[in-house]
Amino acid sequence: MAGRRRRESTVPPNPAVIAAKKILEEKRDAFMANIGPLVEHYEANLRRLSENALVEEARIAKGRQEANSTCLNRSSMIVTEGLVRAVADAVGAEADVSTCAIKASDEGQSEELAPHYVVELYFDSNKAIVEEIQYLRKAAMDLAVDLDNVTDWLALSMPNLNEENSVVSEILGGVLEQVASFVETVRAIVAFPKKYHESRTAVEKELLKLPESKALQMQLELQDAETWDEVQKSWKVLIRVCLITHSVLKKNLPALEEAGSEVSTAAASVYY
C-alpha cells in the first residue's frame, strides 16, 4: 500500500513557471484593487442604458404613428422584369410589368430603363442598440481577460496531491472551478452581439420577401425591445461576476498565499 502512495516531487522549480506566476499575481492584485471603479463603471453604463432604452421606446412609438418619420431608414429593392415573370410563371399567374423612367442626376435628363418595380422597405434604425451592445462586448472582453489571468494563477498555484496539502488543493480546486465558470458566462456575453445581428438579419431577409408583412415589421420591434432587456441583464451579470469573484478570492487568498509559499516547489514542478 505504501508503495502505491505518490511520492512528493523533488524536481526543482521551473523558472519560467515562477516568473509567469509572479506576473499573474500582479495582474490578479490589480484586478482585485480595481473592483470598485470597475463595478461603478458597469453601473454607470447600466444607468445610461436605461435612459437610452426609454428614448428609443418613445422614438419607436412616434415612428409607428408617423409613416414618414425621419428616424426610419429607407431602403429600396429593385425587382427586374425577368424576376417578376419568373415568379409569375412559378405560381401560374400573369405577370404585370410596366416601364419606368428614372431621371439621371448628373445630366438632368430622363433615361428609359428596363421594366422594373421598386418596393420601398422600412427597417427601423437600430443604431442606438448596436452602440450599446458594442460597449457591452468591449467590457465583457476586458473582464474575460482578467478572469483568465486569475484562473491561470490558480492553476499554476495548484500543489501536488497528497495528505499534507489535500485541504489546500480542495480550496484551490473549488475557487478555480467557480472562476472558470464565470469565464464561460462572460464569453457568452462577448458573443451576444453576433447572435443579435444574425437574428435581425434573418428577419430583414424575410421582409425582403414579404415587404408588406406587418407581422415581420412588428417582429423587428419586439426583437429590439427584448435585446434592450438582454443587454441590461448582461450588465448586471458582469457586476455580479466581479463582486462574487472578489469575494471568493478575498476570503480564500490568505490560506492560498500561505499554502503557496509552503508548496511553491511542488507547484512549480507540476507545470512545464
Summary tags:
272 residues, mainly alpha, Four Helix Bundle (Hemerythrin (Met), subunit A), two-stranded antiparallel ribbon, 8 helices, 4 strands, elongated, Proteasome_activ_sf, Proteasome activator PA28 C-terminal domain-containing protein, PA28_C_sf, PA28_C
Provide structural commentary.
The chain has 272 residues and is mainly alpha-helical. It has 2 domains: 12-71 and 126-270, Proteasome activator pa28, C-terminal domain (Four Helix Bundle (Hemerythrin (Met), subunit A)), CATH 1.20.120.180; 76-124, no CATH class. It has 8 helices and 4 strands, in the order H-H-E-H-E-E-E-H-H-H-H-H. The protein has helices at 15-33, 35-65, 81-91, 127-156, 166-190, 192-209, 214-262, 264-270, and strands at 72-80, 101-103, 110-112, 116-124. The strands form 2 sheets. The protein has a two-stranded antiparallel ribbon with strand order 1-4. The chain has a two-stranded antiparallel sheet with strand order 2-3. A hairpin with a 6-residue loop joins strand 2 (101-103) and strand 3 (110-112). Helix 2 (35-65) runs antiparallel to helix 7, helix 4 (127-156) runs parallel beside helix 7 (214-262) and helix 5 packs antiparallel against helix 7 (214-262). It is elongated. The relative contact order is 0.16.
Mean pLDDT: 75
CATH-derived architecture of the largest domain: Up-down Bundle
Shape: elongated
Give the number of domains.
2
Protein name: Proteasome activator PA28 C-terminal domain-containing protein
InterPro entries: PA28_C, PA28_C_sf, Proteasome_activ_sf
Organism: Bodo saltans
Pfam family, one: PA28_C
